[in-house]
Amino acid sequence: MQVKAHKFDVGNIVLQERCPITPTDTAPMLKVRLAELGAKLLQETLKDLPHCLHKSVPQPDFGITYAPRVTSSLAAIKWQDMAAVQVYNLHRALTGLYSLSTTWHGLPIKLLEPSLEIGTSKQEQQTGNSWLLNRPGYVELDHKSRVLRVLCADTKWISFRAIVVPGKKPMSPKDFYNGYMSKHSVTEWTFT
């Protein structure tokens, strides 16, 4: 980009290339790829600078989006509003900056190592409690997979392999179940 004086991200596009983003890419992965691509394009530009500057084109005035400042508040999961894929994509975007966060009965916690899931609640399978499907934020431990599963607004599940409680090191879902979930009725197993 040919930068204008005293302006940020304004000026003609000197050279560009598309960079595909896969459904599993995280911000750090993309940062590495973009750095490599940027270095390659910079070398190409410098090899033939007069020609590249002559061929530069103005940035379009349409399709512009502005991202909010990235703060820890962006990591807060809104279970009532977010689909499972949105929670997963939030993790992908914030990896390396902030861990996803939520609360358990007023206790702030961090959720680590997410993955998308397909299937119904183990609790619903055992008891037929369809009310669970209307409770975004409902949490359960899947003993077989050793993950903590959370129901999202779209009635799909996202699972986590590690949980961090303030003042403690990351714990397994089973440890979280034993130390926190088992002290509450199944009807109170909800993140907010």
Automatic annotation (TrEMBL):
Domain of life: Eukaryota
Pfam families xrefs: Formyl_trans_C
Domain Formyl transferase C-terminal: 71-180
One Gene Ontology cellular component annotation held by this UniProt entry: mitochondrion
Gene Ontology terms, MF aspect: methionyl-tRNA formyltransferase activity
Protein name: Formyl transferase C-terminal domain-containing protein
Source organism: Cryptotermes secundus
